[in-house]
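Hi Y.,

Following your request, here is the sequence exactly as I used it, all 417 residues.
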Amino acid sequence: METKFKMTPLEKKWVLYDVGNSAFTMLVSTIFPIYFNHLAGNAGISDVNYLAYWGYAASICTLIVAVLGPTLGAIADVKNFKKRIFTLFLVIGVAGCVLLGFLSSWIWFLGVFVLTKVGYSSSLVFYDSMLTDVTDAERMDSVSSHGYAWGYIGSCIPFIAGLVVVLGGEKVGLGMQASMVIAFVITAVWWLASALPLLRSYEQKYYIEKKAHMVKESFARLGHTFQEIYKQKHIFFFLVAFFFYIDGVYTVIDMATAYGEALGLDTTGLLLALLLTQFVAFPSVLIMNRLAKKLNPATVITICIVAYLCISIYAYGLDKQYEFWILAVAVGMFQGTIQALSRSYFGKIIPAEKSGEYFGLYDICGKGAAVVGTALVSVLSQVTGRMNVGVASLSVLFVIGLVLFRMAVKMNVAREK
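Below is the corresponding structure, written out as tokens. Let me know if you'd prefer a different format.
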């Protein structure tokens, strides 16, 4: 673990929001699909269709954020707007998280889940773009890595509290829905509380001055940015590569519990295995960050993509509890690093004053943006009737992402010479 690197107060407050929003990610990856499975089962929906509907909901979230992200990101680059829009989506996400616990209809649950996930994912567009304001290029890899590392370990606190309530609720007379309400409220309060220090201290350092026709001007700048990115091949190829390999990563995160549930694996064992993922991820991110300093971030990202390719192939034959535990450990070793270093790598190759709109495009492919992966898993699971085939198909995304990423790295190296 790093001992020499010390964060500034503002960097710590930025990292703290990773601790908060990661609790929601943990909930979505574990308890959410279990509760949805409970609601869907009561409505007579089969396991294969349950997994497919959950995947389709994640894909719809992606499409909405894909439309909102770049547009709002362009507006957020205007002076004093980034914090306002970030706060709006934070409130939508937190309120939706609370509301989900009170729903007993699987259709309504999916609908509100989409709204909540859109709030969460959209808040991250602006949170990620704040990285250029809270630190400098030399510290960016370490700050981003610390965000993911502490996010993983910090998210365990509300998760364990919620898990105790969900698994032990019946012993104290709590029904399934009452237990879920408490678990969701714990997560929402943790999420909101972690954001308050950042909201009090953050100031937009890089910005564009407000114009008379702000919305029209933002759309014009966004169109210009698309043209710029296409001309800057190192950024364009990175974004396309990132789209493919991170789609695979987030599909694994979003659908891991749903996959295990559909295979009929023990629910408690699945949750404990995914909790182990968080504990493995914490030191792994910090260790890999130190490795990135000795080698370079691009090399470590490449190692992570190859590791995920192996994980997706391994998942094809998964049908036992202990195999899921092995999968959980493997994911924990590389999950945080590939996210952290991809975020900081992108932050260093874009213009800081346009970080909002650039990260809007980045986050189309990023958190919650598993449109190709979830749709691929869902469709192939339904067509073949075998969930293993759907999950193994993710290997295609990692192969494409690996090839394009290495091309992007070569272009960036050539540009810097």
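The CA atoms of residues 320 and 386 lie 15 Å apart.

Thanks again,
Q.
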